[in-house]
Design goal:
The complex is a heterotrimer. By secondary structure, chain A is an all-alpha fold. Chain A has helices at residues 2-22, 24-44, 48-81, 83-88, 94-124, 132-157, 163-190, 199-224. By secondary structure, chain B is an alpha/beta fold. The chains are: A mainly alpha, B alpha/beta, C mainly alpha.
Chain lengths: 226, 275, 240
């Protein structure tokens, strides 16, 4: 277990170093999320009160797609340039490759969330400061849960002919409970609700995250073997 | 490095590619697990035994009941046209590909049943793909793989290998800026980083420049490793190997000691067997 | 009778299903009492609910056989999973079709995001993903493994989807026309009997269709093996 964490840390460090050199994923994810937010604004063309009600949904649509981008890009260059085989040849638990990739995805999505959320608040004239600590917990839980499934399915989709289409088709139905829970908790928070107003959702988020994280680590080994 | 005379002995007598594959009776029966094959003590390099190995990809049969033995410390060159199953065979031995049926043994120990993490420590792979990250420098690449493979005295080992492959001056350069030949040299260093005792070479000559070719030959000449080479290059394969084998349509169709073959006739032999 | 059955390739099992279906039609359409509020349209419930049960049950079967497949790596468990998914998908489609037909007169709208319908919709999408991967991943060496992974994750997901859709609507009680309690509470004994028979018959039907689907898949494998043997004997002559 400890060596597994150490190994995934190596993968994570390598990925982050590559990302630091290119900044490919963070930049595309950021621009993408921003565009989604702006397009949604056009799509609804409504007053501030309506926009504030749909804002939680908008946020999570933007982040879900940005998350898919990140997950997909965490495997596609490795696969296309053949370096993935180099990782598989290493004497490590293959679950640690998954964990390393997952940590990278959570980090990058988290960075994009940090950058986009203030703009969101600005555009939609919302109050965020009093809810910051709650949102932090919700966002972290949800991002880990969503990314677990996203990372696993990205490893599947990267092998298929239509990888860009396959990932949302595989991922979104399975991830729908997390997305529903995230939208609901975010909405409740923005409406000034307290933890006890969303006990069920927090429980669902936590259990989903733990269950799918464990399942994904276990199943990853099967996926990468030809 | 290995004992030259002892290794040479192994080289001439060691490799035994079973020839009774192509339709010979008696192969169908379950081939028993081989004992610990070969003489012990040849620099610790293991023997590889392949038994009834079959791999199908959906409708496509990449390998069909291949039986093969590579003695400890010997060098086998595997030829065959595209799609003959050569890379699949290497992939199975490296633990990247799960066989549909059949087994692979290293020193009598089956490696195809469950994935053994430590298998990676024994295998060095050099292919036409370098496994290097373009965005990282040579040193960063080697350090990353060094950590992943649990290499001891990492910095010293990397330093000496970089000197061996003549890349120490470029250790700080991003791989992206290197020529194809230079990348392949770094890839050679990467493959040897953890001092594996089995080398799997898949078209390693592609892009290798003259100097690097000499380096690779030096490494191979030490004969302290069991080597499996897959290549299209009949001449190069023939001159370094102890034994050659030809795969065609997933079957082993030919094998012989290198000493029994004349390089000039081999091209004709190859053509006769792959058509 | 047996002669006709043989000519139509109807197995005794199939015959039982046929008789059961006729009985179900009689019980639900004629024998069961008319529902006071909804009228005759409520009779679609006997088929809708039975199909919904099968759709969910079939996916659990996909998940269980997927686990066994990953464990044993035997093709037959992949066949079980595939057949269960395909037949389950048909029942799930039936749920998606009968739901709105029932909903239109009762709710006054074809579609409402009621928990059960939303649940079925998401399950339907997971089925679609599974079958799409099966078809479009045809050329992949690891496609069976991928499908098993999707089957397992999808099955684990079922309780989560269930609660998520339930609570999601639970926050908006005004749109809750029919709760689970409401559905059962208003039912008379005869209705329950009809529904019970329908569920049993649909389960039998599911297994019958599945056995036929599995037989078909095995035939395909056999054909493939024969083709291989012919090709092997006459290399190069592929066209037969």
């Amino acid at each position: 277990m400890r060596s597994m964490l150490a190994q995934s840390w190596q993968i994570y460090r390598k990925d982050m170093l590559v990302e630091y050199r290119t900044r490919e994923r963070v930049v595309t994810m950021f621009v993408f999320s921003l565009i989604v937010v702006i397009i949604f604004n056009f799509a609804f063309n409504a007053g501030a009160d309506v926009l504030q009600r749909v804002a939680p949904g908008m946020i999570w649509v933007a982040f879900a797609f940005a998350g898919m981008l990140s997950a997909s890009r965490s495997f596609s260059p490795e696969k296309d340039r053949g370096t993935f085989e180099g990782l598989l040849l290493a004497p490590i638990d293959r679950g640690s490759i998954f964990l390393g990739k997952l940590m990278g995805n959570v980090t990058l999505i988290g960075l994009v969330q940090l950058a986009v959320l203030p703009l969101f608040v600005l555009f939609f004239n919302m109050t965020i400061l009093p809810y910051l600590s709650k949102l932090l917990v919700i966002f972290f839980l949800g991002t880990v849960g969503f990314s677990s499934v996203a990372t696993l399915f990205a490893a599947v989709a990267v092998n298929t002919r239509m990888r860009d289409v396959m990932l949302p088709v595989l991922l979104l139905p399975v991830a729908s409970p997390v997305l529903i829970a995230l939208v609901e908790t975010t909405r409740t928070t923005f409406e000034g609700g307290d933890w006890q107003d969303m006990t069920n959702w927090i429980r669902l988020l936590s259990v989903f995250t733990v269950v799918f994280l464990i399942a994904s680590v276990m199943l990853f080994e099967y996926i990468v073997e030809e | 490095m290995g004992d030259r005379s002892a290794s040479d002995l192994a080289g001439t007598s060691g490799v035994n590619v079973s020839s009774g594959v192509a339709g010979a009776p008696g192969v169908d029966g379950a081939a028993g697990a081989p004992g610990t094959s070969g003489a012990p003590g040849i620099a610790g390099a293991p023997g590889i035994s392949v038994r009834q190995l079959t791999k199908t990809y959906g409708r496509f049969r990449a390998l069909h009941r291949v039986d093969m033995d590579v003695a400890p410390g010997s060098f086998l060159a595997l030829f065959g046209p595209n799609g003959a199953g050569k890379s699949t065979l290497l992939g199975i031995i490296a633990g990247l590909v799960r066989p549909s049926r059949g087994q692979v043994f290293l020193d009598g120990e089956e490696i195809t049943k469950d994935r053994d993490e430590d298998l990676g420590k024994r295998i060095g792979a050099l292919s036409y793909q370098t496994y290097l990250y373009d965005e990282l420098t040579v040193l960063e690449n080697l350090r990353f793989y060094g950590r992943l493979f649990g290499v001891e005295n990492r910095e010293d080992r990397i330093g000496s290998l970089l000197t061996t492959v003549g890349m120490e001056a470029r250790s700080g350069s991003p791989v992206r800026t290197l020529s194809r030949g230079m990348r392949q040299r770094v890839a050679l260093a990467r493959a040897l980083l953890h001092d594996p005792d089995i080398l799997l070479l898949d078209e390693p000559y592609s892009g290798l420049d003259q100097d690097a070719m000499v380096m690779l030959k030096t490494v191979l000449a030490a004969r302290d490793k069991t080597v499996l080479l897959v290549t299209h290059d009949l001449v190069r394969g023939l001159e370094s190997a102890d034994r050659v084998a030809i795969l065609n349509h997933g079957r082993l169709v030919f094998d012989a000691e290198t000493s029994e073959l004349s390089p000039s006739d081999f091209e004709q032999t190859y053509r006769d067997h792959v058509v | 009778m047996a002669g006709i059955a043989a000519r139509l390739r109807i197995t005794p099992f199939g015959l039982i299903c046929l008789v059961g279906l006729v009985a179900t039609l009689y019980l639900s359409l004629i024998w069961a009492p008319r529902e006071r509020v909804m009228g005759d349209v409520q009779r679609i419930m006997y088929f809708h609910v039975a199909s919904a049960w099968i759709a969910e049950f079939a996916f659990v079967l996909v998940g269980v056989s997927s686990v066994i497949y990953l464990w044993l790596r035997e093709r037959r468990w992949d066949i079980v999973a595939y057949s269960a998914a395909e037949v389950g998908f048909v029942f799930c489609c039936f749920v998606m079709i009968t739901g709105p037909i029932w909903g239109k007169p009762v709710w006054g709208t074809w579609w409402t995001w009621d928990p059960r319908l939303t649940f079925s919709m998401i399950l339907w999408l997971i089925y679609v993903a599974y079958l799409m991967l099966r078809v479009y991943g045809d050329d992949l060496p690891q496609v069976k493994t991928f499908l098993a992974v999707l089957g397992i994750l999808g099955t684990i997901d079922i309780p989560f989807i269930h609660f998520a859709t339930l609570w999601w609507r639970g926050l908006h009680p005004d749109s809750l026309v029919m709760t689970e309690e409401g559905l059962g509470a208003g039912m008379e004994v005869d209705m329950r009997i009809a529904l019970g028979v329908s569920a049993v018959v649909f389960t039998l039907l599911f297994f019958y269709l599945m056995s036929r689907r599995m037989a078909l898949e095995r035939l395909r494998d056999e054909t493939e093996a024969l083709r291989e043997r012919v090709e092997h004997r006459h290399p190069g002559s592929v066209g037969i």
